[in-house]
Specification:
By secondary structure, the chain is an alpha/beta fold. Helices cover 47% and strands 17% of the residues.
């Protein structure tokens, strides 16, 4: 089977590691995730500029930005939003690759309904115009009234298991995804350029530094008080359309000046890597300079003069005021799983299990309240009872939010392998298949081992239970096999049966 190369290009819906990325890798796909949280269309254009080689090698590009297109132009500058979007779709089209557009759910409370509607229509118009493939999850949730269910995860994104299922189905249907239409484009689109800080004049080399986290790394130039930067003549007669930055807590405004007169101010308190649009046409010339007291600049996105001539694209009002029909063979929305059915399962499970989980803590709280209301105790007893009540409440809340340490330990590879070895004794066929079972457990565990937990095991209320599980025979047996396999060149696996026998003898001797 061919090993496909897929690029994820979009906002946080594609950025989440345990979602589309994980589903694609589960299917053996070579995935490049170029997505970035909070990405409107200008950031996608910026990303394309910097990653042409990666994109040219892809078998499929999965793109999504509608959430942030709605967020950044929520009831204002709607035609400017369309201008950016049309340019982005043209940049995607020029790559001459299979494109799959995900129209993600838009469930933020602050988003206006009419904004979500017109953003969906803009995307549908451009999908039809360029002949891109699409999955309309937003429309699916709207039609089935699933907005509340979607918002349960974190208010903005789908549950990871849903994203993984969609992406796995995409891989299964990748050969059905079509190349774009041959568009006879009469529009003269601008050429976009990336002017990173090192290409600018009047730099103080001491102000260049690297910023990074687990997913991204960038070189930034901090414009400080008393400093300014301006452009080389390579960028004269271009227009500034976007700012890429990575600010700190004490960031300040970025001021654009010409002849020492302030002509535009850019400010964002976003404290992560981003590229945001400029809402004014700013021409670059020798008199233009950028000043700030503290602004961490990554790059400036510029466009040639054709940018100004894009005001007369398709009639904007005609697009947002009519129902948009798209060729059915471009619509892959049938890959969306039966979310309503999943909701029913989850709701029914929670209605049964939530009271059971809460009951032991409610009983304990009830007992403590009885003690507190009883007049037959002194002040010290009252303080102790109140303290115990708060501890129970805190423990209850922690377990509801973050689960149990014992459940985490049961996900350890040692526990899973040990149980597989013990279970294999029940069937001759299971014993024959045991090496393959262990390999399967190893590779599936490898896919999930990078999941980050907010707390260490020692910080969980049931940590002592977790220590007991680590002393189980099954856990010790799995641990022993892992240790022996790491020393395979020294005969570790050969000595495993003997060491397992010794462990068995020692463990069950203690029990007698």
């Amino acid at each position: 089977m061919k090993k496909y190369k897929v690029v994820l290009l979009g906002d946080s819906h594609l950025f989440i590691e345990n979602g589309y990325f994980r589903g694609l890798t589960n299917k053996g796909v070579d995935v490049q995730n170029l997505s970035l949280s909070g990405s409107p269309s200008i950031n996608i254009i910026f990303t394309i500029l910097r990653n042409k080689q990666v994109l040219q090698e892809a078998d499929l590009i999965i793109y999504s930005s509608n959430n942030n297109d709605a967020n950044f132009f929520n009831g204002v500058d709607e035609e400017l939003n369309f201008k950016f979007l049309h340019c982005l779709y043209n940049e995607l089209y020029m790559l001459e690759k299979k494109i799959l557009v995900l129209i993600a759910p838009m469930t933020h409370d602050f988003l206006k309904v009419e904004t979500c509607e017109y953003v969906e229509k803009l995307h549908k118009f451009l999908i039809q115009y360029y002949g891109f493939n699409f999955i309309n999850i937003y429309n699916y949730y709207k039609d089935l009234d699933l907005k509340e269910f979607h918002a349960r995860y974190d208010g903005a994104h789908d549950f990871g298991f849903l994203m993984r299922e969609i992406s796995e189905k995409i891989v299964e249907n990748i050969e059905k995804i079509k190349m774009p239409n041959k568009v006879k484009n009469k529009i003269s689109f601008p050429v976009f350029k990336d002017c990173n800080a090192r290409k600018m004049l009047n730099l103080n080399q001491n102000n260049i530094s690297a910023k990074y986290n687990s997913r991204k790394k960038e070189e930034v130039y901090t414009i400080c008080s008393g400093n300014f930067v301006n452009f080389t003549n390579d960028f004269y007669n271009h227009y500034i359309v976007g700012i890429s930055f990575w600010n700190s807590d004490d960031c300040d405004r970025l001021i654009f000046k010409r002849y020492d007169e302030e002509i535009y101010e850019f400010y964002s308190d976003y404290k992560w890597l981003a590229c945001y649009p400029i809402r004014k046409d700013i021409l670059v010339d020798e008199k233009l300079k950028l000043q700030s007291n503290n602004f961490s600049l990554v790059s400036i996105v510029l466009a040639t003069s054709e940018w100004l001539n894009l005001e007369n694209l398709e009639n904007f009002n005609n697009i947002i005021n009519k129902d948009m029909e798209i060729d059915k063979d471009l619509d892959f929305s049938y890959l969306i799983p039966n979310v309503a059915w999943y909701k029913e399962i989850i709701d029914e499970y929670c209605s049964v299990m939530d009271p059971r989980k809460a009951q032991p803590y409610l009983d304990e709280i009830s007992k403590l309240k009885t003690i507190i209301n009883d007049n037959c105790f002194n002040e010290e007893d009252l303080k102790q009872a109140k303290k115990e009540l708060e501890e129970v409440k805190s423990e209850n809340q922690f377990l509801l939010n973050f689960g149990r340490a014992s459940d985490r330990v049961k996900k350890h590879l040692a526990y899973k392998i040990g149980n597989a070895i013990i279970d294999s004794k029940n069937s001759f066929m299971n014993m024959i298949l045991l090496p393959f079972t262990i390999l399967h457990l190893y590779y599936t565990h490898k896919l999930t081992k990078d999941i980050k937990y907010e707390y260490k095991l020692e910080q969980y209320p049931d940590y002592q239970e977790c220590l007991k599980i680590k002393k189980f025979y099954s856990y010790k047996l799995g641990e022993l096999l892992i240790k022996c396999s790491k020393n395979y060149y020294g005969g570790g696996l050969i000595t495993f049966p003997y060491k397992a026998y010794k462990l068995h003898k020692k463990y069950f001797k203690k029990l007698k």
